[in-house]
Specification:
223 residues; alpha/beta; Rossmann fold; DNA polymerase, domain 1; six-stranded parallel sheet
Length: 223
């Protein structure tokens, strides 16, 4: 199987192109420390990632508060503290997965249009792309707050195909999370699941992507 006829590749960000867990965990723990709550490990935070920033903060608070009631006032304040903390260290320890840079160079040379569709807040995308020096590979990017709906809704993928003026049939979603695969299925779009990401400690193959790869570099053989 190959996807050489595709024109647009839509990439997830966290867990697919980059590993941002160290920085996300640090920001979460800075927020928790404000309330004198116990810090969480990277292993504890990892399954909280994928639905966006607010679910991440909510899950972290609930895990540290040990079933205490989480009020809306406290959550709103905590979320603001988290965003400020993450803004300070957005790409301090975040890194690209093996093979990402080489593969982006290869796909760019082959003429594919590449965009990013992530459930990370929009404001954090460009600073990371700049710091890692990969912004030039992407024509566009959208975050969880860019549109009225986020993954697993098909809306973000439909928006990007329309923006790039490319059909669903000639587009494909690449991601590590069930949200990526379900979004693609909701848009009747092909998808590639990468097995090395976060995905709530679940097997990405269980969500039936068109194909599963174990390494980002494997994409060079598929396109």
């Amino acid at each position: 199987m190959n996807f050489k006829e595709k024109e647009l590749i839509i990439f997830d960000f966290d867990g697919t192109l980059i590993n941002s867990i160290p920085d996300l965990t640090l920001a979460v723990n800075k927020m928790l420390s404000h309330y004198n709550l116990s810090a969480l490990t990277i292993e504890q935070v990892t399954p909280f990632i994928g639905n966006g920033a607010k679910p991440l903060v909510k899950r972290a608070l609930e895990a540290s508060m040990l079933k205490q009631d989480l009020s809306e006032v406290l959550f709103t304040e905590a979320f603001a503290i988290y965003l400020a903390a993450y803004k300070d260290i957005t790409c301090q320890e975040t890194f690209m997965y093996p093979g990402v840079l080489e593969t982006l160079i290869d796909l760019d040379k082959k003429g594919y249009k590449m965009v990013i569709c992530t459930n990370k807040p929009f404001a954090f995308i460009e600073p990371i792309l700049d710091t890692l020096n990969i912004k030039q590979f992407f024509k566009s990017w959208i975050g969880e707050d860019s549109l009225s709906e986020k993954k697993p809704s098909a809306v973000p993928l439909m928006h990007l195909t329309k923006e790039m003026n490319i059909t669903i049939e000639n587009s494909i979603m690449v991601g590590d999370s069930k949200n990526d695969i379900l979004a693609a299925q909701n848009a009747t779009m092909d998808s590639i699941g990468v097995s090395y990401g976060y995905n709530y400690n679940e097997n990405i193959a269980d969500y039936n992507p068109t194909i599963v790869v174990d390494s980002f570099a494997d994409l060079q053989e598929l396109f």
